[in-house]
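Contributing new records

If you add data, match the layout below exactly. Sequence lines come first and carry their own label; structure lines follow with theirs. Keep one chain per record. Anything else will be rejected by the validation script.
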Amino acid sequence: MSVPTDSKVTFGHRFAQELPEMAVSWQAEQAPEPRLLALNEPLAAELGFDPGFLRSPEGLALLVGATVPGGATPVAQAYSGHQFGSFNPRLGDGRALLLGEITDTEGRLRDLHLKGSGRTPFARGGDGLAAVGPMLREYIVSEAMQALGIPTTRSLAVVATGREVRRETMLPGAVLARVASSHLRVGSFQYAAATGNQDLLKRLADQAISRHYPDAAAAERPYLALFESVVSAQATLVAQWMLAGFIHGVMNTDNMTISGETIDYGPCAFMDVFDYATVYSSIDRGGRYAYANQPLIAEWNLARLAETLLPLIDEDQERGVTTAVAALEAFRPQYSGAWLTGMKAKLGLADDVDDEVASPLANDVLTLLQENHVDYTSFFRGLSSAVRGDARPARDKVLDVAAFDAWAARWLALDPDADAMDRVNPVYIPRNHLVEEALDAATAGDLEPLERLVDVVTRPFEERPGLERYAAGAPEDFGKYTTYCGT
């Protein structure tokens, strides 16, 4: 099948062509009764697709991988990964396929990837399928992240397959069509390095440079420049997670992209009440990927990437280690700088406010939130009202009002900008109780709560009348929240 000529879409198969050792040609399983649950029309247009086509039977066949467009070579990608610290040399796309690469309307190369499309040779005993709920969770959260300005893979569509999948109960199945600037991961480099094939490792690094960091190609040491670029991208990304109160939940090395985009929204969640130790994932029993640990884990993952690149960085291993360690040491100051810049923005402080003043102010307000069990998102959104003369929206959330008043006096003395605060502190995030409400309804066949929630969270900074429940924290009877990986 070829996509319509007026869709402007051109498919390619660069990953499969340049890295055949890491690509297993495969075909998606047939979907008995494909039915569109969600379509991201703005993203479709950005890619050059006619949304009307994607809604048609031919379009749905494309979105579930039942038919392959000209120029595409669907493959399951091979990669390794440290999962909760334990190395697995052969993970790969167990229930996913890279359909191919698309040159979008801006001339950018982007992957179109299917999730839940059936078993592949990497399935490791799994059924290769996905349920409606987890695929719609990725749709909701990834589009919320995009609206918040956080680098992310995107969700193009979720299509119900008409096939049930067995989990704790029988659930309706679905396929997610996901878009990324690539699906190259730290785990991809671990796989290439583990083969001992240095030519493969070099080709992989060259593709990463070409797709994401073309300036590195002109550097005196291109592969060191590649590593330095990934360190910088991840430092900025994780700082943005922390500023938004986002918890990824499963930061294995196969879930860290080379591009610096957030990927694999499994047991992810946005924090309600601020707590450094917050963990939502059911499988993270030791808190390895807790909120406060995310920068440390990112650094650990980058160390694993550095290990794979050593032969390319320097022929002399000892010199290579010294060079890579020096590059990795840039992560902490880059992360801290990005985080503090973001906190200044959340607090409405001018860029020229001294870091030695801003840093303790930022850390002290987080301590205040922790000790008083305050909702993170609504506190920061309400804080701008204090600049306008009404401290109640933030102050009333804090039990220790004397501590708040003392902190607020220090902060207000720095002349914060309320309008600037409202541009970076969201009113709406994917509140966990609302996400579950929408997923439960969609699983039962009612898409209205999903559509409403997506509309709200993709316009996060614009306060709108009638949407008060979307800005409120979880009700008391919601209880302790637990997320699951969705496999």
